[in-house]
Specification:
Its EC number is 3.6.1.7. With 93 residues, the protein is an alpha+beta fold. The chain is 25% helix and 41% strand. The protein has one domain: 2-Layer Sandwich (Alpha-Beta Plaits).
């Protein structure tokens, strides 16, 4: 099992609709660590670390639209090497 980290930026109607909490619940279900946080431009940044297949599953979930209350227009991703290891999936403010 290869451990990877991916940074994703989710654009659309993704703030004020429980997006970070739904993302946290999905990430924990997949056994991932990292965080979700709102950005000033109205997007949500998601860092997902863990088994490559599980990270891909979370990215697919984000691209599929996340929670029903959200509208995802696009998801941009890039590989990431965090400065510190994450031991849980946080919601950051």
């Amino acid at each position: 099992m290869a451990n990877v980290c991916t940074l994703a930026w989710v654009h659309g109607i993704v703030q004020g609709v429980g997006f970070r909490y739904s993302t946290q619940r999905e990430a924990l279900k997949l056994g991932l660590t990292g965080y979700a946080r709102n950005l000033d431009d109205g997007s949500v940044e998601v860092l997902a670390c863990g088994d490559a297949q599980q990270v891909d599953a979370l990215i697919d979930w984000l691209k599929a639209g996340g929670p029903r209350s959200a509208r995802v227009d696009k998801v941009l991703t890039e590989p990431h090497q965090p400065a510190k290891p994450w031991d849980k999936f946080d919601i950051r403010y």
